[in-house]
Amino acid sequence: MIQRQLWLIGGLSALVLGTVGIALPLLPTVPFMILAAFCFARSSPALEARLMNHPAFGHHIVAWREKGVVSRRGKWSATVAFGISIAIGMITLALPWSLIPLGVAILCLGWIWRKPDA
């Protein structure tokens, strides 16, 4: 019972972060929605179904689950978002902290671009 509640909290947290990510370039929306669906599959089938049927995110979640693919548009969106985050970090943070967004972008974009296209 407690494990199910922890999965639900994790899913709701990922959903909130994904929602915030719509407005903030540093937080990627779709990966958090995929994580939320993963957590909801273990805690709330109704919430999982809502995410799987969502008009904006559902097809990304299904494509990831079935084939492990990321759309070309999603890859470019992530690249642009990371570029904005790097620029903001370089402008607002002092060294060495300003290098953190760059490092995160290199790691994440390397992984994203290695995934097959949808």
UniProtKB/TrEMBL annotation:
One of its GO terms (cellular component) is plasma membrane. It comes from the Bacteria. Coiled coil: none annotated. Keywords: Membrane, Transmembrane, Transmembrane helix. InterPro entries: DUF454. The chain crosses the membrane at residues 6-27, 80-113. It holds the Pfam family DUF454. This is DUF454 domain-containing protein. It comes from Sphingorhabdus rigui.
